[in-house]
Amino acid sequence: MSEDDTTAVPTDEELETVAELSKRRGFFFPASRAYGGVAGFYTYGPEGAALKRNIEDAWRDRFVTQEGHMEISAPDVMPEPVFEASGHLDGFDDMIIECPECGTSHRADHVVEDATPVEEAESLPIPEVEALIEEYDLDCPVCGESLIDVPVEEFNLMFETNIGPGTSSPGYLRPETAQGIFVEFPQLKQYARNQLPFGVAQVGTAWRNEISPRRALVRVREFTQAELEHFIDPETDEPPLERVADVELTLYPADEQEAEDGDYLTMTVREAVEENVVASDWVAYYLGLARDWYERVGVDMDRFRYRQHLSGELAHYAADCWDAEAELGGDWVEITGFAYRSDYDLSKHGQYSDEEFTLFKQYDEPKTVERATVDPDMSVLGPEFGGDAGAVQDALYDLVERDPGAFEDDTVEVEVDGEPCTVDTADVNFTREEVTESGEHITPHVVEPSFGIGRIVYTVLTHAYDRDVVDGEERAYLGLPAEVAPRAVGVFPLMDKDGLGERAREVETDLRQAGLAVFYDDSGNIGRRYRRQDEVGTPYCVTVDYDTLEDDTVTVRERDSTEQARVAVEELPATLTALRTGSTDIADL
RNA sequence: GCGCCGGUGGUCUAGUGGUAGGACACGAGCCUUCCAAGCUCGUCGCCCGGGUUCAAAUCCCGGCCGGCGCACCA
Q: Domain map of chain A by residue range?
């Protein structure tokens, strides 16, 4: 079929039609509808679950198998300290104040920061924020009504639960799958035999108690993420840019977004790196990889772009971030975030936990360095300083690292609680020694492509939806790539009589045994059955007719072109596989 | 969370203070030798709760769900 035969589907109609199709044909629908439904939760029906799984498998193939990374599966629930360390307990915790007059909700911390000299109000406890509102007599920024005595409500976007009985052990459903990887870094680095770089992926569920779920699968409260955490040595590791150097990217950098007449830049990965449009080579590498992957699973490249985050929207951990965005119903929707997270997460977990979130990096040549040490004689210092003796000891350890020269005189002075303490150098066993260091502990940096699988499913469905005209009749179909289509092939008897049905059942069994997802249909006329499969995106249909009984050949019909070819039954599995992988074409059969 | 609008079989939709019709889909049968044909029959519905009323799917209030706008979006 040529482009000219396609009837363009208006964007305002597109999402409605896809939503209707999704409900009717079992791609996705609101969950728990028998009990009134609950906002932000969707069930993937038989077609949708298969489509989603195929997209996940395509992701695994590209970002795990092809790249030589590993995949793990961590729990959805993790204990509170994990999220204290990750910053989600604070950073995810919004203080909301609602104006009693006009009903507008505001971030209470923003109200305070905007109208007072106070900075970082977000980190203050709620009673203090309320006190500040009273102290400065703050008003609603919209209508001017006084906000004094209006309660500040806390809203945390994480789902909270209790681990075990009682409330002594709070836990949270992870708001991103990433933390499940970071937390296990001490184990994972051993598995990687302490060698950088290595990548750890996870496909799993993440949860956010969104204030306002919207737009079908776009903003939901439970969703699937496919995340890759690529741990690298920022000093020495380089991405294999040459593999994607010629991939063309549509880029929308921050400065273009802020400019009056800003526009997209189209350039190759190589050019983007050379011209420093994408600052991180690693991010550029993944933008290139991902672009081809999106095309592979059915995202329309004419409705796709990479947009750089503006400085104001960068997450607390991100140094630079680009989003992959797809156009849906006239709006741009983020489907993947590519973030350079630096060493933020591993450093935090290193600080908050008792484990080492570093790797030992061996030098090419061992280094010999002079190291000064002290070993204070506590049998002297103890009686001398009494209760402060421990603090004096710590101060001495601290001092010898900072300033070994301080130990060259007869006495050395340290400060404890602001009070100077003088210690005889003779009592601290100061020594300088030569030590050989073979390496150092470093905290790896992290490059994170984070894919929203549900949004990608929704995008692929929407971009695949199309209409054309076949024999004067309008037809609606999903032009899904064969790799992700829920069903591989439909099998029909031309008539359900004269033994055609029995023969078709045999063909069905053969194809199932060849591992293909087959849908058998003998209801209604043949055209209706083709249309049914078109509507759920089945790429090929096989029809058993009277000739089949004579010569063991069947008709293979292709969805997009509706072209047909005659194929021997015994060659069917191989032919269909070749068609699916694109190594042959229906017109060549 | 606020505001506006909406909620009728599986889907889309008509309709009224006196308990509902259509289209498509679906099932059975007839017909049919490759693209949603036709005929017959059939299954399935007024979001939930409260109020007003002789009577509520219809009017009122609340809830839930959805769309849009605001806010939010690590």
A: 3-77+164-344, 93-156, 370-433, 487-588
pLDDT tens for chain A, 589 residues: list them.
333 445 567 777 889 999 999 999 999 999 988 888 889 999 999 999 999 999 999 999 999 999 999 999 999 999 999 999 998 887 776 677 776 665 566 677 777 777 777 766 666 677 777 888 888 888 776 666 777 777 777 777 899 899 988 888 999 999 999 999 999 999 999 999 999 999 999 999 999 988 788 889 999 999 999 999 999 999 999 999 999 999 999 999 999 998 878 899 999 999 999 999 999 999 999 999 999 999 999 999 999 999 999 877 776 666 789 999 999 988 899 999 999 999 999 999 999 999 999 999 988 888 888 778 778 887 888 888 878 888 888 888 888 878 888 888 888 888 888 788 888 888 887 878 788 888 899 999 999 999 999 999 999 999 999 999 988 888 999 999 999 999 999 999 999 989 999 999 999 999 999 999 999 999 999 999 999 999 999 999 999 999 999 999 999 999 999 999 999 999 999 999 999 999 999 999 8
Question: Residue A527, CA: closest nucleotide via C1'?
Answer: B35
CA A181, A79, A213, A457 dihedral sign is positive
How much is the pTM? 0.87
Q: Taking a C-beta distance cutoff of 8 angstroms, is the pair A203, A453 a contact?
A: yes
B strand bases under 7 Å from protein CB: 1-3, 10-12, 25-28, 32-37, 47-48, 63-74
Place of tokens 């150097």: A245
CA-based radius of gyration for chain A:
31
For A509, half-sphere exposure in the C-beta direction (CA atoms, 13 angstrom radius) is 6
CA→C1' distance for A16 and B22 (Å): 22
Nearest nucleotide (CA of A30 to C1')? B65
Separation of A564 CA and B43 C1' (Å): 37
Separation of alpha carbons A78 and A502, rounded Å: 54
From the candidate CATH numbers 3.30.420.40, 3.30.930.10, 1.10.10.10, 3.40.50.300, the one assigned to the domain spanning A3-77+164-344: 3.30.930.10
CA of A528 to C1' of B15 (A): 32
Nearest to A414 by CA among A436, A398, A431: A398
Q: What is the dihedral of CA A385, A388, A393, A394, to 10 degrees?
A: -160
Q: From the CA of A515 to the C1' of B24: give the distance in Å.
A: 34
Distance A211 CA to B60 C1' (A): 29
Say what the ipTM of the complex is: 0.91
CATH architecture of the domain A93-156 equals 2-Layer Sandwich (3.30)
Domain A370-433 fold is: 3.30.720
The separation, in Å, between residue A24 CA and nucleotide B21 C1' comes to 22
Q: Closest protein residue to B73 using CA and C1' atoms? A: A210
